[in-house]
Amino acid sequence: MPELPEIETVRLQLAKVLPGKKIRKIEILKLKSFQGKKELAEGKEVIGVKRMAKVLLIDLAGDIDIAIHFKMTGQLVFEPAVQKSTKYEVPSAKGRIVGGHPTKDFTGELPSKHTRVIFRLDSGTLYFNDQRLFGWVMVNSEFKIQNLKFLQNLGPEPFDITGEEFEKLVSRSKRPIKLVLMDQTVISGVGNIYANDALWEAKVNPRRLANTLRGNQYKELYKSVLGVLREGIRYGGATAADAKYINLHGLGGHYQEHFRTYDREGEECLREDGGIIHKFSLGGRGTYFCPVCQR
Ligand SMILES: [Zn+2]
After folding, report:
1. Which one, 43, 77, 99, 131, has least CB within 10 Å?
2. How far is ligand 1, taken at its centre, from the CA of residue 118, in Å?
3. Which domain holds residue 226?
């Protein structure tokens, strides 16, 4: 599941190529993947690319937005217009911008059987692909999209609050700290990978109840959350282990090479005198921690 750094990475890349281009036509291949009125977007120019938590927003002229929620397996692929001289080349990763859940569709021929919505631009094509069909594309007025109930219910992003506000938000809860970090109504944008790694950085046991952290542990945890998210963005997000081949094409992120605990069950802690990374399930999600340094 793409997390905030993965969405922010694709936002940064699309923000370099989409503004100034016009949406010529929207083709809906799967009704379930689309909400709103495509006619509102057709003929409109892209002004910018924004993000609200894990929802990507393509801002169009006339206060119209295209919202894209990747959920489990959504992905975007932007394919630049084919140059005449390369028209007969085998489709490749060349010049593509990809983001979201990594699959062979990053490099394969498009549209594929997972393509749900196609945005034909005056130059290039944007594909929304989604294997498991939980993701969606919505076209509506900027006002309607920003007032969607689930966006209104989101807590602030860590980037938008201070350490004191972070402490106030998380210390209200008596649930395990990891579940609180991942509760999008408390703080938005921290998913499983980054919650695991931030807790290791701050030396906090994922099971610790959120109201029982001591001393400057809240401050340490806040810094760690910001640190791992920023690092995730710097490395272009994390590309899942089942898609390592993507890197052969220079696509996908590299944060997975910097995991602290995530996906490292049975391996040694990165700290000297640390323990062996344990894995257990907390709230149904794989939770990794070092029993020696995380208390
Ligand atoms: Zn350790």
Report:
1. 43
2. 47
3. 158-289
Q: Is the pLDDT of residue 150 over 90?
A: no
- pLDDT of 170 reads 97
Taking residues 106-116, report their average pLDDT: 94
Q: Is the pLDDT of residue 73 over 70?
A: yes
Distance 2 CA to ligand 1 centre (A): 27
CA 200 to centroid of ligand 1, rounded, Å: 8
> Looking at the chain, which runs of residues are DSSP E strands?
23-28, 34-36, 46-52, 55-60, 64-69, 74-79, 97-100, 115-121, 125-130, 136-141, 278-282, 285-289
Q: Is residue 98 part of a domain?
A: yes
What DSSP character marks residue 187? Answer: S
Selection from 58, 132, 121, 128 nearest residue 99 by Cα: 128
What is the average per-residue pLDDT within 267-289?
Answer: 96
- Domain check: are 233 and 271 in the same one? yes
In the prediction, which pLDDT does 144 show? 95
Pair 138, 232 in one domain: no
Within a domain: residue 253? Answer: yes
- Catalytically active residues, by annotation: 2-3, 54, 285
State the distance from the centre of ligand 1 to the C-alpha of 271, rounded, in angstroms: 5
Residue 295 covered by a domain: no
Any idea which of 75-84, 90-99, 140-149 has the lowest mean pLDDT?
Answer: 90-99
Report CA(80)–ligand 1 centroid distance (Å): 46
CATH, residue 91: 3.20.190.10
| Residue 136 shares a structural domain with residue 168 | no
Distance of alpha carbon 109 from alpha carbon 92, whole angstroms: 8
